[in-house]
Amino acid sequence: MRMRILKAAASLALAAGLITPALAEEVVKIGLILPMTGPSASTGRQVSAGAKLYMAEHGDTVAGKKIELILKDDTGTADVTKRLAQELVVRDKVNVLAGFGLTPLALAAAPVATQAKVPEVVMAAATSIITEKSPFIVRSSFTLPQVTKGIAQWAGKNEIKRASTLVTDYGPGIDAEKTFVEVFGAGGGEVVSTARVPLQNPDFGPFLQKVKDEKPDAVFVFVPSGFGGVFMKQFRDRGLADAGVKLIVTGDVTDDDLLPAMGEAAVGVTSSHHYSAAHPSEANKAFVAAFEKANDGMRPNFMAVGGYDGMRLIYEALKKTDGDTNGVKLVDAMKGMSFESVRGPVTIDPETRDIVQNVYIRKVEAVDGKLYNVEFDVLEAVPDPVKAAAKKG
Ligand code: PHB
After folding, report:
1. How many Cα atoms within 13 Å fall on the side-chain side of residue 194?
2. Average pLDDT, the chain
3. Nearest CA to 363 among 168, 175, 151, 159?
4. Which residues contact 292 (CB under 8 A, 6 or more apart)?
5. Which one, 74, 102, 214, 318, has least CB within 10 Å?
6. Distance of CA 81 to the CA centre of its chain
7. Mean pLDDT over residues 253-261, rounded?
């Protein structure tokens, strides 16, 4: 009897809107901030499609809570990212911030995450330092030093003695350049020249002309996802390949999203990266097929996988906390998490909150008439080398 009265009182209170806070807690809100327009729109498209596919496959209820994804376009501008992060935290009361298509955008949100004690799941941006900017940052993408190490070692062992570097002039490019110079140098290689091009409206022409005159065995290149097509066109037009200069890159340049449109110029380009749409596992074949089906044939690139696995981290963390959305508990739950991703095995390093993963060496080849990054070698379980070296002291 007493129970019944209590229940009746509770439903009355509910109807009167007196206990909405309890109800509101039944929803877990994820604020997904991405460049959906502007020069990095391909990153936004890929990450958001990856996150949405994960939800479509795994349902929108976790540990009894409904997951609500709130997608915001920051246009690739850091001021906008920061304002959106603040609004999402204060007004929408999101439990998790996620996305972040470029390094400056991930950095802009870091103080907001720290102050609000809300996890910031970085699904795309890849400068090593990012995770050090807030104890609430966990990364599902990669770092540039992590992937650059692979191609720098490969070059030294494959008859490349003299190399030039060409990178985009901001965080990830500088990380890539430093790592290449260090690792290629340690293997006995000679770095002939280093060049940096602006992120906005890059003109690679003058740099490529200089490289052509220097005649190194290879040029190592990093440009962020979305810019590889422009670069490849200029590389071809300047005739570097004909001059005998090999092109070696991180997988950001031979991005799976743009690769089919790059044509002949991309064939034979060697790269290292953590994900290829051609990764030959059953799980990846199913992922690529489902992604293409859900997105009008768009091929997933590494950004899509960052979004997909980032959602997985959030889902699994909620399961571990039994639906508790406390930010410290969620981040703690993500630390040390290991699973088989469509890219291969991954672990969230409990100390750095970066992702430890395989880095594959690949070559662009036509498979059934379409260009892919075909993997032919692997460095297993690679941590972010910058933080690994700092730890060693
Ligand atoms: C970054 O800004 O951190 C970034 C963006 C795109 C990439 C890699 C790094 O492909």
Report:
1. 16
2. 94
3. 151
4. 298, 299, 300
5. 214
6. 17
7. 95
